[in-house]
Amino acid sequence: MERKADFLVIAAALIWGFGYLAQKTAMSDVGPLTFVACRSSIAALVLLPFALREGGPRPWGWMLAGGVVFALAVTIQQIGIVTASMTNTAFLSALYIVVAPLMALVLLRRRSGVQVWLGAALALAGAYGLSGGQLDSFVSGDWLVMASSLGWAGYMLVTEGAGRAARPLSYTAGVFGVVAVLVWPLAVTIEAPDLMALRPALPEIVFVGIMSSAVTFGLMAIAMRHIPAPRVAVLLSAEALFAALIAAAVLGERLDLLGWLGAGLILAAVLVVQLWRR
Question: How far apart are CA 97 and CA 269, in angstroms?
């Protein structure tokens, strides 16, 4: 069952690779908070029928905890991206790969296997290579993006805990419902979105809401009933690899030698946690 769960996470990473392209296109028409609010609303509505079919008691506490942590992480990240350099963002966004096993160790007193730590190191080095192998001088936005990695790692730990409730789709639907409730007021107050202005970005918003939110986070919640958060963090690093390959194929972006080396390291990280069993 662990191997099937691994492949669910890798499938989510692949979809996120396509989602990166959609988000990059949509940001020219929509503010970041409005985009988060829209995608969360769509995801919650898409997941609701499946959540209702699960039956049984709902993990309300886990939904609220996951939604609050998710909202904090994504809001801090989106605000940080406004002023952070793209070079730094590409690397700093991947810090959750290492933060997740560290948080599991500090907060849960749970040690991760050697393969997870090795995979995390390889994945982080790969993300550094894909970012161009350099970091610009830090500004306030960079620190916010770095802080968001704590939130994403925390969300993974909450999702792992919610797996005990055996209601993964109810949990995920509830999380996005909470995020929508929390972020919409911020989006309306700060960005004052014009509904007509959303029309050019509607295809991207719908794709991200359904595929990159409802489907991917639903798959992740299902998988994390069987595999721990640190392992998931390493497997999700494949997102950067898929995004780079898709950007090369669709946008014509090209990787240099260091970028290809970084891609190879991320692939090695995924293989390490996949093939190295205790």
Answer: 11
